[in-house]
UniProtKB/TrEMBL annotation:
Residues 15-249 form the ABC transporter domain. Keywords: ATP-binding, Nucleotide-binding, Transport. It comes from Nereida ignava. CDD domains: ABC_HisP_GlnQ. This is Glutamine transport ATP-binding protein GlnQ. Gene3D superfamilies: P-loop containing nucleotide triphosphate hydrolases. PANTHER family: AMINO ACID IMPORT ATP-BINDING PROTEIN, PHOSPHONATES IMPORT ATP-BINDING PROTEIN PHNC. The keyword Oxidoreductase does not apply. Pfam families: ABC_tran. Belongs to the ABC transporter superfamily. GO terms for molecular function: ABC-type amino acid transporter activity; ATP binding; ATP hydrolysis activity.
């Protein structure tokens, strides 16, 4: 097993977040977030439930609006301008805890829908691309089935393949394994490890600390809407600095 966590990252910036704040009504959910992600980085975000991890991830591809500060993705400033939002969404793939596949479409159709309708890719070409990525996540034989006929782990791998069909430069994962039975977690993590080995820029909200140690070049700990601490995995786990990080790690490790 190669040490992915030691893999080099480029000095080109993929995501730049400056003094970003977000409120849900009067609730101040994200506070003064500063985060620079370079191309090829593999970042794991952890922290207690309710600390704002999902909100942060969702702000990066404009599923949620932020109210203060800036977010720049691949050089595009994320503003309320719809054109920019489309640009960013086409660069950024996302996988959620619940796979959000369309139940009435086959696996292949789930994977070709956005390329055909958003990217205007010809159907045949979109199908070839979809089969390529279904092979990559090791379920090409499921292409004509419906999501309900697949296991949770298989559905999540379809969700990853579906994102990859849009050829994203950045992948965001929000607890992709936390709705899965234990025996299916490894197959999804293996797919994510392969993506990391290929140099994909990844931000992963996960409590899979084995994955964090093996794959991440940086672990970020969030609490109460703030980035409390971040470090390379070894330092993060062996020598956490803040009491909040220590408490969190003592609860999950
Ligand atoms: P995490 O992913 O770390 O568990 P979230 O980003 O989901 O945290 O939520 C952070 C806080 O914001 C929580 O207190 C949650 O209840 C609240 N929250 C999340 N989504 C909404 C929403 N759409 N409206 C109001 N409050 C929300
Ligand atoms: Mg969450």
């Amino acid at each position: 097993m190669s040490q992915i966590s030691q893999m080099k990252v480029s000095d080109e910036v993929a995501i730049e977040i400056n003094q970003m704040n977000k409120w849900y009504g009067s609730f101040h959910v994200l506070r003064d977030i500063d985060l620079t992600v370079n191309r090829g980085e593999r970042i794991v975000i952890c922290g207690p439930s309710g600390s704002g991890k999902s909100t942060l991830i969702r702000c990066i591809n404009a599923l949620e609006e932020h109210q203060k500060g800036t977010i720049t993705v691949d050089g595009t400033l994320l503003s309320s301008d719809l054109k920019n939002i489309d640009t960013i969404r086409s660069e950024v793939g996302m996988c959620f805890q619940h796979f959000n596949l369309f139940p009435h479409l086959t696996i292949l159709e789930n994977c070709t829908l956005a390329p055909i309708w958003v990217r205007k890719t010809p159907k045949k070409e979109a199908e070839e691309i979809a089969m390529h990525f279904l092979e990559k996540v090791k379920i090409p034989e499921q292409a004509d089935k419906y999501p309900g006929q697949l296991s949770g782990g298989q559905q999540q791998r379809v969700a990853i393949a579906r994102s990859l069909c849009m050829k994203p430069r950045i992948m965001l994962f929000d607890e992709p394994t936390s709705a899965l039975d234990p025996e299916m977690i490894a197959e999804v993590l293996d797919t994510m490890i392969e993506l990391a080995e290929e140099g994909m820029t990844m931000l992963c909200v996960t409590h899979e600390m084995g994955f964090a140690r093996k794959v991440a070049n940086r672990v970020i700990f969030m609490d109460a809407g703030q980035i409390v601490e971040q470090n390379e995995p070894e330092q993060f786990f062996e020598n956490p600095q803040s009491d909040r990080t220590k408490l969190f790690l003592s609860q999950i490790l």
